[in-house]
Write a structure and sequence with these properties.
single chain, 377 residues, alpha/beta, TIM Barrel, eight-stranded parallel barrel
């Protein structure tokens, strides 16, 4: 097991090796690190702020190569949907965008946002530079790789293309904007350009707009204003409609509240016609170990498990004290108690409400979970 130091804790001296030699070769070349202007602000415990508006420039990311196969089919549901929803091609558009991410027939995707080195502003190029060490330490290739981007920043296409070329699926967290302005069309040009950019990727991608909208944070308050949950729903549907108008059929919309506390989330649900995956962010803030996952996500799961949509845990983590038990517990908890959860993404980074970065013991637990057949999607 290769170990690495946490820069925020000088006492740790072991480091993840930058050299990766597994049964498959992974090569990452990063031309330059970029700052997206994303502030490290947590609502559920470790998440970045959903309110990011600083423009950024793209830095070239040369390549990531693995042998993971790319899926070709997308999620399905029995709920009625507007014209073009859930189909591989919206009316009057080119089919070249391809299909959205497939729903695993059995088991679940296992992924991560990887930035243990920090700081938050390192950007996609700097984050992807840390992927070989993560893969070396866990003897695995994440099926999903998380990225964060500001609302008015260009889509990080170089990073998205590198992730797709590796056979992984990008999970792009796209920050919020004032929902009233979104619904009234103020940002239509921004949204349309973003949709066209993601369509041009030509590979499956998860898009998580305005995550943790239900939590009382500075970022969510500034974007919700006085419009509240109804305003969020209107803005969500407006963005969804533009993406479908341009034929971005490869984009799966991931609705993602923060859970595990007392903040209600059901008023913010746009409806199954406008959502491809139902997700949640939740952290083991009370150091519950192997029982933590079930405690944090039970209420959310009970609410949506019978939905026609697949479920995703888009962010989760535990601190060093019980991290190995929390992560290791996923191997039993998901198959037995959370079978509708089809994707889990670990937040491997320091956050303002806790350091969720994987410790050597946490990396070993992740390696064990990743080796399970259930997480081979």
């Amino acid at each position: 097991m290769v170990q690495r130091a946490d820069p925020t804790a000088p006492a740790r001296t072991l480091a993840r090796t930058p050299v990766l030699r597994l049964d498959r070769t992974v090569t990452i070349a990063v031309a330059a690190a970029v700052a997206l202007g994303v502030s490290a602000c947590s609502s559920a415990g470790g998440s970045r702020s959903a309110n990011v508006s600083t423009p950024a420039t793209s830095a070239p990311v040369a390549s990531i190569t693995t042998a993971r196969p790319q899926s070709a089919t997308g999620p399905t549901g029995s709920q009625p949907a507007p014209s073009g929803a859930g189909s591989s091609q919206a009316a009057g558009t080119s089919p070249s965008a391809g299909n959205p991410p497939a729903v695993p027939a059995g088991g679940a995707y296992l992924g991560a946002w990887i930035n243990p080195a920090g700081p938050a502003g390192v950007g996609p190029a700097g984050e992807l530079a840390q992927l070989p060490a993560f893969e070396q330490a866990t003897a695995s290739h994440p099926a999903i790789i998380g990225l964060y981007a500001g609302f008015q920043s260009p889509a990080p296409m170089a990073a998205l293309e590198a992730i797709s070329a590796a056979g992984a699926i990008p999970l792009l967290a796209w920050s919020c904007a004032p929902v009233g302005a979104v619904s009234s069309g103020v940002y239509d040009s921004t949204v349309r350009n973003y949709a066209l950019s993601l369509k041009s990727l030509g590979h499956p991608i998860f898009l998580r707009w305005f995550w943790e909208m239900n939590l009382p944070t500075r970022s969510s308050s500034s974007c919700l204003g006085t419009d509240g949950a109804p305003g969020f729903v209107q803005a969500w549907i407006h963005i969804w409609s533009i993406f479908h108008e341009v034929g971005a059929t490869n984009v799966a919309f991931v609705w993602c509240p923060g859970v595990g506390g007392t903040a209600p989330f059901t008023p913010f649900f746009p409806g199954t016609a406008y959502v491809d995956w139902i997700a949640a962010d939740g952290y083991d803030r009370h150091h519950l170990g192997a029982e933590g996952f079930a405690t944090v996500f039970a209420a959310w799961y009970d609410t949506y498990a019978s939905s026609s949509k697949p479920l995703m845990v888009a962010e989760t983590g535990a601190t060093a004290s019980d991290q190995s038990q929390y992560v290791g517990g996923l191997a039993q908890t998901l198959p037995s108690s959370f079978p509708a959860v089809k994707a889990v993404v670990y937040f491997d980074a320091d956050g303002p409400n806790g350091n969720w970065s994987l410790t050597p013991a946490g990396l070993a637990a992740f390696k064990m979970v990743a080796s399970a057949q259930y997480f081979s999607a």
